């Protein structure tokens, strides 16, 4: 049977107290609305329509690459009104439509498939996805006749004392027969506590027309809606747990999952060990057998096999195999660190490549540079890449030994197999095989202290 989806994403989300539209708030690195779209697409529903309104352009920009169509809700008059705004999308369609709210990111592909199968097998005109919860506060309640057949949904603010005690809630996710939905929507009004056109009212309308209604229940961990920052953190916690369990099932050791923050797109290979306090973000790949000691942030980067990272920040960069980074290193975007490299404490690398086997062990800045293989950087080397106006490039060839406290004033080229004496300020290219010394010669003034009468 033909199926399509409508996702409601036009609301402002007043309770978030934010300048960002609610549905663009992120859970484990992905916008809530995009979780909903991705799961629907994974459940093989291709034709997806997003109802947008508040912050429409922002929502559109953040969802465009997912190939959805859009309907526009000018004024936010309620969830029922939002679906009415998708009438052009639904017109002349026959089959099933699933309707989802964009502020419930935890729903899974399996539950979406189960909802549709249940709906179609049972030949229902409407099927509601529900959850049984300890604290139903804020949610619409499912009203059943004599504890069986669904009669209607009553919003929290419209509930009687008795109805408030019902702990089966409306997830805001449904499957409808398209024609039945369209005809019932024409009959809703805004005669309720919030003076809104509620989508939930179509259930009672269909019931009164003796249409067959279904309901299926899934755990609250999948249906929880996000209306506030507190609920955002609760959704994040559930998603974090899912992501960490997925990695552990794939053979990654996570010492303390509660304090390990891995975003949804991150990939981690087998036998990598992750200590607490790591934040791994964006499009990051950690290859096998790595050890991430505590407290690093790694974003949009690749870490090669058998590498060790400790208390460092690595952004938009590539780190090779058998390399160690940190503690306290800062690898800034567009850096490429080779294999068997050591980047030690208080080292900053910016937009530079570091060749295989090179050691930059401590207190060094390398910016806009190309460093060869098997080099050794002494403590306190600075690549002086900025003259106040422009940034220029430094090249250091293979097998170079850069003595402690060297300044490399760029643009400058240090050729292969060279030595630079400690304390040098290098302004001219160093030829292959040379030793460069660029500092004043030492002068000893014998007896100077006594002569000046400075002896203590
Ligand atoms: C809604 C349901 C409630 C359910 C809960 C589940 C209604 C009337 N109530 O309540 O039964 O338990 O979700 O989370 O449907 N939206 C629009 N246009 C509007 C209003 C809302 O697009 O005019 C969108 C919002 O962006 C949001 C979704 O619809 O993504 C739900 O709106 P929200 O105001 O959060 O509804 P709830 O009060 O949570
Ligand atoms: Ca909501």
Descriptive report:
- The protein is α/β, with parallel strands linked by helices.
- It folds into two domains: about 1-225, Spore Coat Polysaccharide Biosynthesis Protein SpsA, Chain A, CATH 3.90.550; about 230-435, UDP N-Acetylglucosamine Acyltransferase, domain 1 (3 Solenoid).
- The chain is about 20% helix and about 30% strand.
- It has a 16-stranded parallel sheet that branches. It has a nine-stranded parallel sheet with strand order 14-17-20-23-26-28-30-33-36, with no helix packed on it.
- The longest helix is centred in the middle third of the chain and has 21 residues, at about 230-250.
- The structure holds uridine-diphosphate-N-acetylglucosamine (UD1) and calcium ion (CA).
- Uridine-diphosphate-N-acetylglucosamine binds near residues 23, 169, 199 and 200.
The H-level CATH homologous superfamily of the largest domain, spelled out, is Spore Coat Polysaccharide Biosynthesis Protein SpsA, Chain A
Report the C-alpha radius of gyration, rounded.
31 Å
Largest sheet: 16 strands, parallel
Q: How many discrete domains?
A: 2
CATH architecture of the largest domain: Alpha-Beta Complex
Helix-strand category = alpha/beta
Mean pLDDT: 97
Q: How far apart are the first and last residues' alpha carbons, in Å?
A: 98 Å
Q: How many strand units?
A: 39
* Beta fraction: 25-35%
Instruction: Identify the CATH class of the largest domain.
Output: Alpha Beta
- Assign an overall shape: elongated
